Amino acid sequence: MSALEIEALRLAEGRTAILDGLDLRVAPREYLAILGPSGCGKTTLLRAIAGLVRPSEGRIVLDGEVLCDGQRGTHLPPERRAVGFVFQHQALWPHLDARATLRFALRHGARLRGRAAEQRIDELLADVQLAHCAAKAPGQMSGGERQRLSIARALARAPRILLLDEPLGPLDANLRRDLEELLHALHQKLGLVTLHVTHDRDEAFHGNGRAAILRAGRVLQVGTRAEFLAHPADPFVSSFLGTT
Amino acid sequence: MSSLARSPLYALLLAAGAVFFAAGVLAPLGSIVVQALFPHGSFSTSALEAALGTARVWELLGRTVLLGAVTSAIAGLVGVAYAWLLARTDLPLRELWRALGLAPIVIPPLLLSIAWSGWMPWLEGLWANAFVFSLAYTPIVILLASRAFEQIDGERLDAARLLGGERAALRISLGLAWPQIAIALLLVFVFTTSDFAVPDYIAAMQSVERQQLSFNVYAGEIFAWIKLGTRYAEGAAASLPLAAIIFLALALVVRQLRRIEVATVGSGFRGGPPVRLGAWLPVALLGMLAYLALAFFLPIVRFVSEMQHVNPLLRAMGLFPDGSPDQNLAPAFLQSLKLSASGATVAVLASLAFAHFAARRRKTLWLDLLWITPLAFPGIAYGIGMVGFYSTHVELFRPIRNGSAALIINLAGHFLPFAYFAIQGAVRRTEREQEEAALVCGASPTAVFTHISIPLLARGLVAGWLLCFLFAMREIDSFALLSYGESTIMRRIYEFIHRGRSPEIAAGCLVLIFFIAVPLALHALLGKKKVEVL
Question: Dihedral, CA atoms, B94, B80, B473, B254, nearest 10 degrees?
Fold first, then answer.
């Protein structure tokens, strides 16, 4: 039984196919890295799952609920998908401090207000080790703090799936390591299905997890590092992972 | 769809914007075309032939284009130099110079021409007009060019410096800032060619013999058809060639707007090190002071000296008990403030959703061109359109044409592009992902629009409102045709000054400058507490 099922997903911009019949299955509680060269459709895949773009064909099913079905014209709007999304450039709101950001997310995503919301905000800030920044606006935070706030915001609505779009990209090596640990610790604690887009091979195979390799809008292969080394699906996979 | 168009509030604003665009832009502009082509209810070229069939008309058009080009060139040279000194050098007291450089924008061109005809009564001809207009519009170049210079990444200039020193860096700076500079020059051209009050006033100040040789411009020709027998059809027909030329300039503005490269979040942007002025500092300061003296200080000194005493100021404000009703300008000030504030508010509300929609979608060039069209028609032509449409026999329009509603529609419709493009610029500077993040958080499109989009666009909304307000307070041309417009302060000053100079007019000019300056100064002060941009 898969938590996330994606079948024959197609999405084009003009005449260019961004997703070209993409299939993917993700098990419950799985942390799956999405790996591939620039322009292969990694971010678009996450945006399609979140409902921010509308595929022309194919299906996305999450926990048995059809989020999108090109054939039937079904397309659940993003605010009703219960998805957590960490954007590549964070997309924080400069006019709201950390507490106000989470208050907004809880009010609209989890219908939590008042004391219950404030209590949940404290928990979220503690989860991402950001309690000291509660009153800070994004512009007053470091890059790592902003990324932690972005993660807390994604978790605020108690999502069914967490989508991470190159969450470690803009950070230096030490911060990357800390945040990587934080993400995996949160995954252990919450057990959320997580898709982590990256172009970094070491990041993709952290903790011997599985990764899916994309090329030209299709999934070429899904597996662990050992499986890729032992049975690469084609020469591109070998060359991309540097095993040839 | 993930778009905010699913929000009922957004859809309502789009609908309201469309209705206003139809009533405040399409109706008057359509009326101009209908009057020109159907002067007697059926198609006829008689109005076009009468208005455009003489060599004089085309000579005036050429003369007006020349005035626009000369003014743009002068304002460009002064403004770009001033902006470069502000943005890229180690000029001391930079913020003070920036505020002073923009200060002349609060003096309407007509008031500048009144002040300078006081200092130099012999002012006349092409160069006199170009002198006044370039003083008035140089702040536009300073504003846009300095912002463009400040947005240039220091590494790009370093790369040029390594190849050819400061001269190469300057050439690269000018190249990178060119889209904004081009926009500023085109806007100067548009405002100059649209104006008729300044050339009309400068010509009127000459002796009767000299007036035969005076420098008339095309917008004056449009007004002449109305003044010489209310021939609206010929006036409308006459406005079309000038509108076509200005529209071409505005289309280039739209094209350049889309080329501007904005320093974006996470781009690793850093400003370059300032150029050391060294021994050139006194020369630079002298040049800047000379511009400020001509464009700001001397006109203010002129009005203060003509006022002679504080009493005219008190009379103008209605605070002096023995002032005659003619000297009390307070009702006219209040009327102008009310109309300008209302017009600006309507323009911002009508533009908000459309500007957001256009910025977030692809292939919306047509929408930009449509929304910039009102500026293509000079104020006097816009007035013809307003009168033509709202004086039809439709009973529904009677309350509109007889009250201040016509003036508010006129101001909001004519200056709508300022609000539209200011808001659109603000939308383009925010990330689409900031709205998407809120949607993914579970917020409804309406909540995203009200809690995320509008606060992020606050500065654009304020800037759009202020621009509309600024130009509405200066408006005079279209009000010449709308009877209710006689009660505005610009109309009162325009009428009084043609009867001769007086301390009361000087006082009125000073108070008008003050009322225009206050909201801009407040914005400048409060704007220092900038919204954090990552």
Answer: -120
